Amino acid sequence: xxxxxxxxxxxxxxxxxxxxxxxxxxxxxxxxxxxxxxxxxxxxxxxxxxxxxxxxxxxxxxxxxxxxxxxxxxxxxxxxxxxxxxxxxxxxxxxxxxxxxxxxxxxxxxxxxxxxxxxxxxxxxxxxxxxxxxxxxxxxxxxxxxxxxxxxxxxxxxxxxxxxxxxxxxxxxxxxxxxxxxxxxxxxxxxxxxxxxxxx
Length: 200
What we know:
alpha/beta; 30% strand; 6 helices; two-stranded antiparallel ribbon
């Protein structure tokens, strides 16, 4: 996750509510097929869940037979992942990713939206470096313009669809598909999002 301390504090405070309401394994299983992500990952491949929250996605991948690493900047989220799913989470920020050609897939599901606009391209570069040739990326982001905080204090950067696909392409990825939708988050507001699937 981002190193923004206010955002981390907001997730620390709301960890249980987030896990119970918006981050359930049942929801993950229902949504996963729509991304096309696992079709790009070989059977038994290694996946990094970057900004894993309470571990529901990481648990879904593990149960499907994949090797999984998980990271998050919020200790309370890491504790929930271990308690609920037996997932051990490395508590670290996005810029701690130093892996080189270690992963067949990186899952960044509405986590990198907390990174600043200036930091975001470097995070994409780190992800590309961490992937093996042809490795998959799933990236969930909110669409819009500018930067700001929600009523819980969480920091967000918003992109247009063209901006986002352009930045991912510039980092060396080939975009396979995009999916737009609308949904309510932890802060209660309904916003437009995009899930982008690409390969290195």
